[in-house]
Amino acid sequence: MDTHTKEQRSKNMSAIRSKETKMERMVRKELWSKGIRYRKNVNGLFGHPDIAIKKYKIAVFLDSCFWHCCPLHFKRPSTNTEYWDKKIRKNILRDNEVTEYYVQKGWLVLRFWEHDVKEDPARIAEEIIKMIRKVQKRKKLND
After folding, report:
1. How far apart are CA 87 and CA 67, in angstroms?
2. For the whole model, what pTM was predicted?
3. Across the beta sheet with 39-40, what order do the strands follow?
């Protein structure tokens, strides 16, 4: 059972950010400190990747455990379950659609869970950098 009133819960949920989240800032800070330049929340790109590195066609999404149904941490709300089931299902379908779109366009899509970012943002940045190096190496071989 929810310990908040309907109004309190509504206020809490409406305050949740979709961009400029703490986890985005943590990963971006790590990337910037290592000399990686990127674009954030690019409106012109489908699905608005949290981090986009256009030069190497890399789209990074940092998925929250609740909104994207993390298999380890997602807790289904006990009230208004029909609404939440539909909402979360739509989010998952949209994630799949966005990923497929970028794959079809030749982009590399990286998705990281909120709990992994919070645990070690430096490791997430290193994984992104590793992928950039892979793409750079592939580009050199094709040139």
Report:
1. 8
2. 0.84
3. 39-40, 51-53, 58-63, 108-113
Task: Please tell me the distance from the alpha carbon of residue 98 to that of residue 93, in angstroms, as a whole number.
Answer: 9
Cα–Cα dist 73/75, whole Å? 6
Tokens of 12: 């809490």
Instruction: Find, among 12, 39, 17, 24, the residue nearest to 114 by Cα.
Output: 24
- Give dist(CA 34, CA 4) in Å, integer: 43
CB atoms < 10 A from the CB of 20, how many? 11
Q: Where are the domains of the chain?
A: 18-142
For the chain, 143 residues long, give each residue's pLDDT as a single digit of tens: 556 576 665 555 555 555 678 899 999 999 999 999 999 988 889 999 999 999 999 999 999 999 899 999 898 888 888 999 999 999 999 999 999 999 999 999 999 999 999 999 999 999 999 999 999 998 888 87
34-39 contacts: CB < 8 A, separation 24 or more? 34/125, 34/129, 36/125, 36/128, 36/129, 36/132
CATH code for the part of the protein at 18-142: 3.40.960.10
